[in-house]
From TrEMBL:
InterPro entries: PROXY (IPR044786), YbaK/aa-tRNA-synt-asso_dom_sf (IPR036754), YbaK/aa-tRNA-synth-assoc-dom (IPR007214). This is YbaK/prolyl-tRNA synthetase associated domain-containing protein. One of its GO terms (molecular function) is aminoacyl-tRNA deacylase activity. It comes from Serratia fonticola. Residues 25-149 form the YbaK/aminoacyl-tRNA synthetase-associated domain. It holds the Pfam family tRNA_edit.
Length: 162
């Protein structure tokens, strides 16, 4: 399951000549812990949320990517995609759409029914993004510009304002 996602991801990045490195590490439960292990800032983490957006005739699964030091505003996410409400997907839906467990989902969509969306703040503070790559024991640290060029996420402002 997770090794297939990792292989698919690294093949894509190699094919697209992305600048990245692989970091092997013990499983960490929280974004703060894994950032320390990786040697990155918390805000460099690309947090991936699988959501279900509905309303206005929309029924869309969304892979929403935001910096790990921020919280998502699901209402703003829904509006940004054209819906009226959003909720987190069930573990079964996450497995079906990403082939990954919670916490190991990379910020790439390999499923035709999963729309990739990123908050613009993800690209404004750091030159590199860090994320688990299909497994909780393996991360990628990827050039942010290369990520945006290759993944081509739809940009939607959906960070919760404090």
């Amino acid at each position: 399951m997770s090794t297939a996602t990792f292989s698919r991801l690294t093949s894509l990045l190699d094919q697209q000549q992305a600048r990245y490195r692989v970091v092997e590490h013990p499983t960490a439960g929280k974004s703060e812990e894994v950032a320390k292990i990786r040697g990155t800032q918390l805000g460099q983490g690309a947090k991936a949320l699988v959501c279900h957006v509905k309303g206005n005739g929309i029924k869309q699964h969304v892979l929403a990517i935001l910096p790990a030091d921020q919280q998502a505003d699901l209402g703003a996410l829904a509006q940004g995609v054209g819906g009226t409400r959003a909720s987190l997907a069930s573990p079964v839906e996450v497995d079906q759409l990403t082939d990954c467990v919670f916490g190991a989902i990379p910020p790439f969509s390999f499923h035709p029914d999963l729309l990739l969306v990123a908050d613009p703040l993800l690209f404004e503070r750091f030159d590199e993004l860090a994320f688990n790559a299909g497994t909780l024991e393996r991360s990628l640290i990827l050039n942010a510009g290369d990520y945006q060029r290759i993944a081509q996420p739809r940009l939607v402002n959906f960070i919760r304002m404090a």
